[in-house]
Amino acid sequence: MESKETKLDDTQQVTTKSPSGFSIIWREIVRDKIALVSLILLVLITGFVYGISLFLNQEEIVTVDLFAIHEPPGEDFLLGTDYGGRDIFGQLIIGTRNSLSIGILVTLMTGVIGVLYGLVSGYFGGTIDNIMMRIVDFFLILPFLMVVIVFVAIVPKYSVLSFSLIMTTFLWMGIARLIRSKALQEKELDYAQASKTLGSSNLKIMLTQVLPNLSSLIIVTMTLNLAANIGLESGLSFLGFGFPESTPSLGTLLSYARNPQTLEYRWWIWVPAAILILVLMLSVNNVGQALKRATDARQRRG
Amino acid sequence: MWKFIVRRLFITLPQVLLLSVLIFLMAQMMPGDALSGLIDPNIDPAAIEKQRETLGLNNPWYIQYTDWITGALQGDLGQSFRYKMPVTELVEQRLINTFWLSVATLIITYIIAIPLGITSGRYNDSWADQLITGYTYIGFATPLFIFALVMLWVFGYQLGWFPTSGSVAPGLTPGSFDYVLSKIQHLLLPAISMALITTVNTVQYLRSEIIDTKQKDFIITARAKGASESRVYNRHILRNSLLPIAAFFGFEITGLIGGTVFVENIFGYPGMGDLFIQSILLRDYSVVTTVVLLFGIASILGALISDIILSLVDPRIRIK
Amino acid sequence: MAFLKVEDLKVHFPIRGGLFNRKIGAIKAVDGVSFEIEQGKTYGLVGESGSGKTTTGRAIVGLNDITEGKVTYEGDELNKKGKAIDPRRDIQMIFQDPYSSLNPKKRVLDIIAEPLRNYEKLSRQEEKNRVHELLEQVGLSPESILKYPHEFSGGQRQRIGVARAIALKPKLIIADEPVSALDVSVQAQVLNFMQDIQKELNLTYLFISHDLGIVKHMCDEIGIMYKGRYVESGTKQDIFNNPQHIYTKRLVAAIPDIDPKKREEKKQFRQEVQTEYEQSYNDYFDNEGLAYGLQSVSDTHLVALPEKG
Question: pTM of the prediction?
Answer without folding.
Answer: 0.82
